Amino acid sequence: MASATAATAHNVFVYGSLLADEVVLFGITDPELHILDEFEDVEYQRTAVEVSLLESCNKLQTHAYVWSDANDPNLYGDWDFEGEWTETPVA
Question: Number of structural domains, the chain?
Fold first, then answer.
């Protein structure tokens, strides 16, 4: 007797990727999500978030990887793809 299991498809919001400034990856499988978890390592925590899509203004439930150390002084500021940090004053 064969058992069928429904595959879970996930959406993942990626900010600041090499592809574009903001990207939503649709239909990520459980094994692919595990690969992303391993890639992001312990420095990031996968978090459920809601994003607004620019094309349609629809809201979407998705995962995002958030920097784990909220007290990291390097977290605040602007980062460019050359790898340079510039400090932005916190009000």
Answer: 1
Per-residue exposure over 46-63, b if at least 16 CB sit within 10 Å of its own CB, e if not: eeeeebeeeeeeeeeebb
CATH code of 50's domain: 3.10.490.10
Quick: pLDDT tens for 17-67: 656 667 788 899 999 999 999 988 888 899 999 988 877 888 989 998 888
Pairing of strands 59-67, 10-15: parallel
The residues assigned a catalytic role are 40
Q: What is the pTM of this model?
A: 0.64
User: CA–CA distance from 58 to each of 53, 63, 77, 78 (Å)?
Assistant: 5, 16, 29, 28
